[in-house]
Structures are given as structure tokens and as C-alpha cells.
Amino acid sequence: MKLLNEILGTKYPIIQGGMANIATGEFAAACSNAGALGLIGSGGMDADSLRENIRRCRALTDKPFGVNIMLMHPQADEFAKIVVEEGVKIVTTGAGNPGKYMAAWKAADITVIPVVAAAILAKHLEPLGIDAVIAEGTESGGHVGEMTTMALVPQVVDAVHVPVIAAGGIADGRGLAAALALGACGVQVGTCLLASTECPIHENYKAALLKARDSDTIVTGRISGTPVRVLKNRMSREYVRQEKAGADKMALERFTLGSLRKAVFDGDTESGSLMAGQAAGLLHEVRPVEEIFALMVNDAKNCIGGLHKEITL
Ligand SMILES: Cc1cc2nc3c(=O)[nH]c(=O)nc-3n(C[C@H](O)[C@H](O)[C@H](O)COP(=O)(O)O)c2cc1C
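A: This is the predicted complex of the input protein with flavin mononucleotide.
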């Protein structure tokens, strides 16, 4: 099996997940320079800022990097053209089917990697000519599906012939080793990078992550149809309470309007949306991304070697 680093031309088999309002050109470049694939999260951007972030990223790294496009973004059509015009070589997509962009992206020799939360979607997308697929379990931070990484990854591996990248709940070498054991060629991580020196989120957000325990996340929007995993706080508890009480979708949307930006930029840990995955409980210090990636790969090697030596089934 080809590992993700061989497919992408990176040092490590790790993708930094594109995170809306967080993964700027500078952050993506820092992750690429540290050996992973850095992704610009176009989620919170408009067309001009996406173009600027791509150019800034390119100026800061000579390593591979990519762009994440959330297909439900109102400017997704424009973003799809910008990545071609700016010569971006790797695109990951979230929340849907990138079919209508595939011809243009393939003509531009772009590596296309959609995120899926169920094997059936991976199977559906494979004939489009996708290059790999990210199987993201519900443990992850941000928008989530229903299935766990443990159950999802091997089923996606069995369903498609393209390489599978595991995401959701992976924050250290044990997680990387487990993902490889499930048949993935590498991992995409988000939550563990929120606690990094380079991550441009407010210090209060980082402090809340370091305090979080395993059960300190909650999913808002399970009932209303847009499930998002965040840290428990006043806003997210109240959201779920109102949702269970039958509040209508518009009222709930008004309630969370701009809440991610409140958390990321203002450090509002009470009414902001502190998107984070269940792996938050594994974060104990803020470290440079270079250290996070190097340790993850080194610990995975030790973990795999240790299993080989110590376990006889
Ligand atoms: C704060 C935050 C924002 C995210 N925003 C996006 C996004 O805009 N697009 C996307 O495809 N995934 C997004 N994700 C998911 C990540 O790209 C990645 O798949 C996920 O974080 C992996 O699981 P983990 O959080 O357990 O590491 C986000 C995750 C976090 C934590």
C-alpha cells in the first residue's frame, strides 16, 4: 500500500484539515513546512481573501499545500475556478458531491480528495475520478456524520479502490497507528492542531481545549440537520436544549450566527462556538506544529514496533 506522503509528496502521511476561519494561508504554510499537507480552509473566506491566502501560502512554502472547499458555501462555484486559476494542485471538498467541478479540476491536473462520512458516498464518488477519499468519523471537530472512525474507515476501505485517509479522533501516534491498521494510508487531523503555537485562534479557545476532558464535546444540530461538534459551553448547551424543545431551524440559526468567529477572534468561550473533536481530552500543552507531527509519526512507529514485539495473537 502506498502511504499518503508518497501520494502527496509530503514528509509525513498527515493532512492538516482545512478549518473555516482558522486555516489561513500562513497556518497552512506552517503545516506544510512542518512536513504535513497544509490546507487553506476557504469556509470563512470570500473570493478575494481565498486568492490572497493562496498567494500568501505559496510565498511562505515551497512544499505541497492545498485548499479545502465546503461545497455548500455560497461562493463554491467561484472558489472552484480560483483554485484552477491560482494553480493549486490539491483540493479537498466537504459536504457533498464535487461532480460538477471534476472536469475542470482534472484538466488542471488537480488531486481531488472529498471528505465522506459514509461508505456509500465514497462508492458514489469513486467513478467521478477522485484520487483518494477522507473517511471522517463523528469523533471529529466541526461538521460531523453519524459513524465512528473505527467502524467507518474499514468499510470505506472495502468499498472503494482509491486510497483512504482516516479522520476523526486522531491526535497522537496511537491514533495514526490505529488508522493504518484499519487500512488507511494516512490521516487528517484538526483538533490536535488547534493547540499549536501557530494556530491563529484566540488564547481563550486554546485554554478551553487544554481544560477539556474526553466527554466535554457535544453535537449541536443533530435534530435540525446540520450536526456540528463543539466544546460544551453556555451556547452549545442552550442550543441543544432549544433544539430538543422543538425550536425552529431559523431561530436556531440566528442563535449561532457568527458564533465560530466569536470564539476564534474574540475568545468568547461562553457564547462562541468552540468547534473541537472528542480528542480534545488528549491535548495537554500548546506545541509547535513541527513537534506535533514529528512526535505523532515517531510514536506511531514505536507503537507499531511495540505491537509486533509484545503481542502474539
Ligand atoms: C475548528 C474546526 C473547523 C473545521 N472546519 C472544517 C471545514 O471548514 N471544512 C472541512 O472540510 N472540515 C473542517 N473541519 C474538520 C477537519 O478538517 C478534520 O477533518 C477534523 O478536524 C478531523 O478530526 P479531529 O478534529 O478529531 O482531528 C473542522 C474541524 C475543526 C476542529
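The two ends are 23 Å apart (CA to CA). The first strand starts at residue 14 and ends at 16.
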